[in-house]
Structure formats: C-alpha cells, structure tokens
Amino acid sequence: MLKPVEDAQSTLSRRLLQLLRPLEMSSRTARGPGLHTFARQLFSYCCIERERLVSVVSEMPRIGIVLSGEKEFWLGDAGQRFVAGDVFVLPAGTPFDAVNIPSEANGLYESLLLEVTQVPKWVQEMPGAARPVVGFDLRVPLSQELVDALGHAAISLGGSDHAAVLAEHRLAEVLILLRKLPVAQPLFAQSLAERAAWLVARAPARRWTAEEIGRELGVGASTLRRKLVEAGTSLRGVQASARMQLAHEMLARGEGNITDAADAAGYASRSHFARRFQAVYGASPAEVRLREPTQQG
Fold first, then answer.
1. Burial class for 156, CB neighbours closer than 10 Å (0-12, 13-18, 19+)
2. What is the pLDDT of residues 230-263, one digit of tens each?
3. What SS3 class is residue 93?
4. Distance (Å, rounded) from C-alpha 41 to C-alpha 161?
C-alpha cells in the first residue's frame, strides 16, 4: 500500500500528464524516435526500444518530465528511476548515463525537456534559496502550484512565436517555485564554483581532488582552482561546506549522535565542530538534534 505522501504525488503526476497531453507524441503528427524541437527552449525525446546512453552531457540546465515509459539516470554507482508523471532536473555540464525504457502499454518512451537558458536576475537573487541537496537526487517533489506552473509553461513554450513574452513569464513562475527546493538548485548553479559545490554535495564523504572534480565538469584542475579563488572560495572550502551540510541533515533527521555528525563533517574534535556549526547555522548541534522533525522544514 502506498504511503499518503506517495498517493498525493501520484495524483499530482496524473494531473501533470493531463495538462501535457497536447504535447504527447500520440496527440500530434508522429515524427519517429529521437529529439524533436517544439520551440527554442522546449524539446521532446522518444524511443521505441530500450536504450542506454553513455556520458550524456547537457550544455544547459534542463527540467525534464517523463510522459511515457520509464527513465533511469546513473552517476557512477548512484542511480534513480523515474516513471510517467515524474519531474527531474538535469544539471549542465555533468555526464550522466541514461536508460530509457518504453512503456509496455504503448511501446513508447517519451519525455519533455524544458531548457533553462537564463534565470532572470530577480529570481536568482530571491531570498530563501535552498542549499543544494546532499547525495544523488534529481527528483522534483510536486505541489499543485508547481504542476499548474509546469503545465502552463510547457503549453506556452510550445505555442506560437507571438506567445514568447507569455512563455517567458510562465517559465519564471516555475523557477520561482523551484528556487526553494534543494534538488532544483543545479538549475541556478550558473558558475563553475556553484557546479563544483553541487558535485561535492552529491558525495560529501568522498575525498575529492581538483583533478576528479575537473574531470567531471570538463575543465582542468588548474582552471577549477582559479575559478574557485575568483568566486571567493577554495576546494577545501567547498568540501567543508558540503560536509557541514551533511552533518546538519543528519542531526535534523535524528540520524546518529553529535559525534557521528562531527565525523561526517570531518572534525576530530566535537568542540571545534560545535563552534563552527553554531557559526554557520545559528544553533548548536544539540539544539538542532532536539528539534521535532516537523520543525526542520
């Protein structure tokens, strides 16, 4: 039996698929498998046989919606599966392996892709932006507001050129809602430093080297170090921030004790960890751990 939250997500997924039905392959002239362009920022991709695509890199951040079949993303040993009605984010510049699985019902895999070519400055500077999610997670949790915004944006982008201003407005509405979701932060990671921070946050316990991060992001180690310095940080700083965030999430979820959190953050001394934690979050590790889970959101 599905949990209530899963029931709610399933209902929202069905609603989103209903809104996007005019853009499905079955609702328009079929053009065969492959990538098809609706408009400058809106694409669809479909296939009729199971396929695995190796090291797929998106030049721009994208919001994806599975319309039919199933999709898997793999980054090393970490993977995630999506079904029809699921929404995912695809960071720019990161090579993923993708598996597309056609539906048994209609023999088709199809997804819709919204390309985020530019984030309005006023959206980028909105207060209350979330920190990037810790771990490998591309799945966007749905809300009624987000479902409606995604449906309206996709339909507007797929309309005539005369609707360009409306489409831009609709996409901005989507980005406003996504700005506060941790999983969606790669959409707003415009700089190399921000992309490096997202990559490290995916596996904060890993002892990343500049060469490893540079290889993942397609740049040399020296270029990476220089860009981080220009952004006012360093590889050590990016790693420390990601590990401190992991420690905070452990305590907020009640997973382990303060010593475990200090270890996760890379601190041998609990007192040093506690002082740094207090400086970053404005509360002590003990205070965060004692809060009720419902107060952490």
1. buried
2. 888 898 888 888 888 888 888 888 888 899 888 8
3. coil
4. 12
Distance CA 7, CA 14 (A): 11
Pairing of strands 70-75, 78-83: antiparallel
Q: What is the CA radius of gyration of the chain?
A: 20
- The CA-atom distances, in angstroms, between 193 and each of 142, 185, 219 are 28, 13, 12
Percent of the chain past pLDDT 70, that is, above it, reads: 87
Indicate whether 225 pLDDT > 80: yes
**Which is nearest to 186 in space by CA: 58, 74, 55?**
58
Q: Which class would CATH give 192-295?
A: mainly alpha
What is the mean pLDDT of the segment spanning 66-83? 92
CA distance 30 to 125: 41
Spatial separation of the C-alpha atoms in residues 142 and 219, rounded to whole Å: 34
Domain with CATH 2.60.120.280 in the chain: 4-188
Structure tokens at 14: 């069905």
User: In 3D, which of 275, 27, 187 has the Cα closest to residue 265?
Assistant: 275
Q: Which tens digits make up the pLDDT trace of 271-295?
A: 999 999 998 888 899 998 877 444 4
Query: Which residues are CB-contacts of 136 (< 8 A; sequence separation ≥ 6)?
Result: 75, 78, 79, 80, 202, 203
Give 5's pLDDT tier (boundaries 50, 70, 90): very low
Highest-confidence segment of 79-88, 187-196, 264-273: 79-88
Superfamily classification of domain 4-188: Regulatory protein AraC (2.60.120.280)
